[in-house]
Amino acid sequence: MDPLHAPWRIEYILAPKSAATEGLFTQIAQSNDDEANLVIVRDRTCYALLNRYPYTGGHLMIVPYKQVRDMNGLIDEELTDLLKLICRCQNVLTQVMKPEGFNIGINLGKVAGAGILEHLHIHIVPRWLGDTNFMPILANATVVPQVLQDLAV
Protein backbone atom coordinates (compact mmCIF):
# COMPACT_ATOMS: atom_id res chain seq x y z
CA MET A 1 0.00 0.00 0.00
CA ASP A 2 1.31 3.45 -0.90
CA PRO A 3 1.03 6.17 1.72
CA LEU A 4 -0.62 9.49 0.96
CA HIS A 5 1.24 12.48 2.29
CA ALA A 6 -0.65 15.41 3.78
CA PRO A 7 2.08 17.44 5.49
CA TRP A 8 -0.26 20.31 6.36
CA ARG A 9 -2.10 18.01 8.80
CA ILE A 10 0.90 17.65 11.16
CA GLU A 11 0.46 21.25 12.30
CA TYR A 12 -3.06 20.43 13.51
CA ILE A 13 -2.05 17.08 15.01
CA LEU A 14 0.85 18.52 17.03
CA ALA A 15 -0.81 21.80 18.04
CA PRO A 16 -1.85 22.10 21.68
CA LYS A 17 -5.57 21.53 22.12
CA SER A 18 -7.23 24.01 24.43
CA ALA A 19 -10.44 23.40 26.28
CA ALA A 20 -12.29 26.17 24.48
CA THR A 21 -15.29 27.66 26.21
CA GLU A 22 -16.76 28.50 22.79
CA GLY A 23 -17.22 26.34 19.74
CA LEU A 24 -14.98 26.59 16.69
CA PHE A 25 -17.52 28.43 14.53
CA THR A 26 -18.23 30.94 17.32
CA GLN A 27 -14.49 31.58 17.69
CA ILE A 28 -14.20 32.14 13.93
CA ALA A 29 -17.27 34.41 13.96
CA GLN A 30 -15.68 36.58 16.65
CA SER A 31 -12.20 36.61 15.10
CA ASN A 32 -10.85 39.44 12.95
CA ASP A 33 -8.45 37.15 11.08
CA ASP A 34 -10.62 36.11 8.15
CA GLU A 35 -7.64 35.03 6.07
CA ALA A 36 -6.34 32.57 8.68
CA ASN A 37 -9.87 31.28 9.26
CA LEU A 38 -10.61 30.99 5.51
CA VAL A 39 -13.66 33.27 5.85
CA ILE A 40 -14.60 34.50 2.40
CA VAL A 41 -17.68 36.62 3.15
CA ARG A 42 -19.49 38.02 6.19
CA ASP A 43 -23.15 38.94 6.12
CA ARG A 44 -25.52 40.36 8.76
CA THR A 45 -26.40 37.10 10.51
CA CYS A 46 -24.10 34.53 8.91
CA TYR A 47 -20.78 34.04 7.17
CA ALA A 48 -19.17 31.72 4.63
CA LEU A 49 -15.80 30.02 4.86
CA LEU A 50 -13.80 27.46 2.97
CA ASN A 51 -13.88 24.01 4.52
CA ARG A 52 -10.40 23.31 5.92
CA TYR A 53 -10.88 19.59 5.21
CA PRO A 54 -12.78 19.71 1.91
CA TYR A 55 -14.37 16.89 -0.07
CA THR A 56 -13.42 18.74 -3.25
CA GLY A 57 -12.04 22.12 -4.29
CA GLY A 58 -14.43 24.98 -3.55
CA HIS A 59 -16.14 23.18 -0.64
CA LEU A 60 -17.71 26.01 1.41
CA MET A 61 -19.72 26.19 4.59
CA ILE A 62 -22.36 28.76 5.51
CA VAL A 63 -22.56 29.35 9.27
CA PRO A 64 -24.95 31.49 11.33
CA TYR A 65 -23.27 33.72 13.90
CA LYS A 66 -25.73 32.41 16.46
CA GLN A 67 -24.66 29.03 17.82
CA VAL A 68 -27.61 26.66 17.37
CA ARG A 69 -27.74 22.89 16.83
CA ASP A 70 -30.36 23.04 14.08
CA MET A 71 -32.49 25.45 12.10
CA ASN A 72 -35.21 25.54 14.76
CA GLY A 73 -32.98 27.84 16.82
CA LEU A 74 -32.99 30.56 14.16
CA ILE A 75 -35.51 33.33 13.57
CA ASP A 76 -36.99 33.99 10.13
CA GLU A 77 -34.48 36.74 9.28
CA GLU A 78 -31.55 34.43 10.06
CA LEU A 79 -33.04 31.61 7.98
CA THR A 80 -33.58 33.98 5.07
CA ASP A 81 -30.02 35.29 5.33
CA LEU A 82 -28.67 31.70 5.31
CA LEU A 83 -30.57 30.85 2.14
CA LYS A 84 -29.54 34.08 0.42
CA LEU A 85 -25.88 33.49 1.26
CA ILE A 86 -26.13 29.91 -0.03
CA CYS A 87 -27.41 31.26 -3.37
CA ARG A 88 -24.76 33.97 -3.48
CA CYS A 89 -21.94 31.48 -2.82
CA GLN A 90 -23.33 28.98 -5.32
CA ASN A 91 -23.45 31.72 -7.96
CA VAL A 92 -19.85 32.77 -7.30
CA LEU A 93 -18.64 29.15 -7.36
CA THR A 94 -20.48 28.64 -10.65
CA GLN A 95 -18.81 31.70 -12.15
CA VAL A 96 -15.31 30.99 -10.81
CA MET A 97 -15.04 27.18 -10.85
CA LYS A 98 -17.66 26.19 -13.45
CA PRO A 99 -18.90 23.06 -11.67
CA GLU A 100 -21.44 20.80 -13.36
CA GLY A 101 -23.49 20.42 -10.19
CA PHE A 102 -23.58 20.91 -6.42
CA ASN A 103 -24.22 19.01 -3.24
CA ILE A 104 -25.77 21.43 -0.75
CA GLY A 105 -26.66 19.96 2.59
CA ILE A 106 -26.80 19.90 6.35
CA ASN A 107 -25.66 17.07 8.60
CA LEU A 108 -27.54 17.16 11.90
CA GLY A 109 -26.25 14.82 14.60
CA LYS A 110 -23.27 12.51 14.80
CA VAL A 111 -25.00 9.61 13.05
CA ALA A 112 -25.80 11.93 10.12
CA GLY A 113 -22.13 12.82 9.69
CA ALA A 114 -21.96 16.12 11.55
CA GLY A 115 -18.39 16.83 12.60
CA ILE A 116 -19.32 19.90 14.65
CA LEU A 117 -22.52 19.03 16.49
CA GLU A 118 -23.11 22.19 18.47
CA HIS A 119 -23.17 24.70 15.61
CA LEU A 120 -25.36 24.46 12.53
CA HIS A 121 -23.49 24.79 9.24
CA ILE A 122 -24.48 24.19 5.64
CA HIS A 123 -22.12 22.59 3.15
CA ILE A 124 -21.85 23.71 -0.48
CA VAL A 125 -19.80 21.22 -2.48
CA PRO A 126 -19.18 21.88 -6.19
CA ARG A 127 -19.20 18.70 -8.29
CA TRP A 128 -17.92 17.68 -11.71
CA LEU A 129 -18.64 14.62 -13.79
CA GLY A 130 -16.11 11.97 -12.82
CA ASP A 131 -14.86 13.76 -9.70
CA THR A 132 -15.56 10.66 -7.64
CA ASN A 133 -12.81 8.13 -8.14
CA PHE A 134 -11.26 5.21 -6.29
CA MET A 135 -10.00 7.38 -3.41
CA PRO A 136 -13.32 7.88 -1.57
CA ILE A 137 -14.49 4.39 -2.42
CA LEU A 138 -11.42 2.34 -1.51
CA ALA A 139 -9.41 4.61 0.76
CA ASN A 140 -12.14 6.67 2.42
CA ALA A 141 -10.18 9.75 1.32
CA THR A 142 -10.32 12.42 -1.33
CA VAL A 143 -7.61 14.28 -3.14
CA VAL A 144 -7.96 18.04 -3.32
CA PRO A 145 -5.38 19.39 -5.77
CA GLN A 146 -5.67 23.01 -4.72
CA VAL A 147 -4.14 25.08 -1.93
CA LEU A 148 -6.99 26.59 0.11
CA GLN A 149 -5.33 30.00 0.43
CA ASP A 150 -5.01 30.22 -3.38
CA LEU A 151 -8.71 29.46 -3.79
CA ALA A 152 -9.69 32.01 -1.14
CA VAL A 153 -8.05 34.83 -3.06
Topology:
Blueprint lengths: L8 H6 L9 H7 L3 H4 L1 E4 L3 E5 L9 E5 L11 H22 L3 E5 L16 E6 L6 H5 L9 H5 L1
Q: What order do the SSEs take from the amino end to the carboxyl end, as H and E? A: HHHEEEHEEHH
Shape: globular
Please tally the helical runs, counting DSSP H or I stretches of 4 or more residues: 6
Q: What percentage of residues falls in helices of 4 or more residues?
A: 25-40%
Uncertain runs are none
The pLDDT mean sits at 84
Largest sheet: 5 strands, antiparallel
How many strands appear in the DSSP assignment? 5
Which secondary-structure class do the elements indicate? Answer: alpha+beta
Which percent range describes the beta-strand content?
15-25%
Quote the distance from N terminus to C terminus.
36 Å
Specify Rg, calculated over alpha carbons. Answer: 16 Å
Going across the biggest sheet, name each strand in turn: 1-2-3-5-4
Structure explained in plain terms:
The structure is a single chain. Strand 1 (39-42) and strand 2 (46-50) form a beta hairpin. It is built from 6 helices and 5 strands; from the N terminus they run H-H-H-E-E-E-H-E-E-H-H. It is globular and about 40 Å long. It is an alpha+beta fold. It has helices at residues 9-14, 24-30, 34-37, 76-97, 134-138, 148-152; strands spanning 39-42, 46-50, 60-64, 101-105, 122-127. The protein has a 5-stranded antiparallel sheet.
